[in-house]
Amino acid sequence: MKKKIGLLSMAMLLMLMLVTACGGKDKEVSLGVTESGSYTNDYFGLSLKFPKEWVYQDADQMMKLMEAGQEVVAGGNKAKSKMLDLAKTKTLNLLMASEFPLDSGKNGPSAIAVAEKVSMLQGIKNGKDYLESSKKLMVDSKLPYKFEDIKTVKVGGKDMDLMKASIDAGAGVVNQEYYSTIIDGYAFNLILTYVDEKSKAETDKIVESLSFK
Question: Is pLDDT above 50 for 26?
Answer without folding.
Answer: no
